[in-house]
Structures are given as structure tokens and as C-alpha cells.
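Methods — Computational structure assignment.
A single polypeptide chain was analysed. Its primary sequence is given first, followed by the predicted tertiary structure written as C-alpha cells.
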Amino acid sequence: MRRFGEAFERMLLLFGDERMYIVYVLFSAIHVRTYVGQTQDLETRFRQHNSGRVRSTRIYCPWEMIHSETFGTRAEAMAREHFLKSASGRKYLHNLLEAIASE
């Protein structure tokens, strides 16, 4: 959880009060599942996922934040989210998970 906090603080420093759109990837180690989503409030959304308030993810709790990317427009964020949910994007996430596991 510490990495999530530091990354979030860096994003706030970079973008200040401007509204940013964030694509994030969650990982459930217990169920070996990933979830890709996008939001403007990453901290709140992450808490919603782990508290069981999101129907599609509640049965896979607990979640760990493994990746996030920030975009200036919602259209850019939605395009990236769409890519990460595609076959090529899933391959990218698989490689990312392998890299994290080898750390």
C-alpha cells in the first residue's frame, strides 16, 4: 500500500488541482485476477474496491494496486483502459505482473 500512497502524492505534485483521469490496474493475489478501471479519484475508488462496494470486484477482495497511468482527458484514459482490456493489453499486464513478482 505504501507504493500507492507515494505514487498518488507524486501525481498530485505534478498536476496540482487540475482534474486528471487515471487508469489503474488492481491485482487479487488470492484469486490471481486483475481488474482495469479508470477514475478521477484514485484513492476513493481503491477504497471502494477493497470495501466491497463495487459489485464486479467485491468477491475478489483484497485488491492491490499494481499500476496506474494519468491522462489529461477522459477520452485518452478510456482509450488506454480499452487497450489494457484487449488481448495485447492483457499480455502487457501479464509481463508487468511477472516483472513485479521477480522484484
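Note: Residues 21 and 74 are 6 Å apart (CA to CA).
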